[in-house]
Amino acid sequence: MAIGRVRVSTMARPAAALLIDADNLSPEVADKAIADLLARGFLITVLRAYGSPETLSAARDVLQKHAARVVVNQGRGTTDAALVIDAMDLLHAGGLPPTVAIGSSDGDFAPLAVRLRESGREVLCYAQGHKADLDVLQRVYAEVVSLSPRGSARAAAPVAAPIAALQAPPSPARKSARKTTARKAPPPPPAPAPASDPASIVWSLLEDMPGFLEGESLELNTVVKMLRDAKVMTKSTSAPSFFRKLDLPIELSPARAPNKLRRLDGVD
């Protein structure tokens, strides 16, 4: 009588968890974070996304593709708390694997990262490019992976040379070499000036927010927090006056005490 054999793999993949702040990461960046964990050989046993109904709806295709569990917040400013509570519940229930990744550029999760590290977990961070609070993140995470959404001009922008290096006087040796070659080589073309128009910078940041390009209404407090984290809006500036000066094609609603922002141009 033939005896069947069950093949047991000796190359089991290590498990990892990924908790995504969908109010902070765009769907494209969340997709890249998942792909990066898989490329590292991890089996993602816990995959959850937290956010408002609007941001989770904008990320629906990505979240469905990876069978992520979604957790809807309880109103403005509650996404971070929902993620932290869920992480601690998983920790105490023994549901967190040895590697935990947090998908957020926000330094507010630093205490959570420290607590998970104390439990023996390796804690990674997936941050979205220019939004990242790197000074805080690099202190508390084992690794910070900075990602950018597709089509972002900022992702392809070259790093500008330090001003001191551009203004430093040439050494005597360079001066003599320049005299002998100045007539032979044409001068280099001037470097393009970096974009410094405040309206263009703000618009680029808004384009990275899930649902903005589709004309969806965004939570105004989420937008303001993003702009303040990016150092383009001060804490003392009110949102209506800030956007009024920029004269961008956006709408704040309701008019008397606005709490929503949406794009006006190019939306049917």
CATH topology type of the largest domain:
Rossmann fold
User: How can the largest sheet be summarized?
Assistant: 6 strands, parallel
Helix segment count?
12
Task: Tell me the span between the first and last alpha carbons.
Answer: 70 Å
Mean pLDDT: 80
- The shape is elongated
Count of individual domains: 2
Radius of gyration (CA) equals 24 Å
Low-confidence stretches: 6-10, 151-170, 175-182, 191-195
Strand order of the largest sheet: 3-2-1-4-5-6
Strand portion: 15-25%
**Number of strand elements:** 9
User: SSE order in H/E notation?
Assistant: EHEHHEHEHEHEHHHHEHHEE
**Helical proportion?**
25-40%
CATH-derived architecture of the largest domain: 3-Layer(aba) Sandwich
Could you say which structural class the secondary elements and strand pairing correspond to? alpha/beta
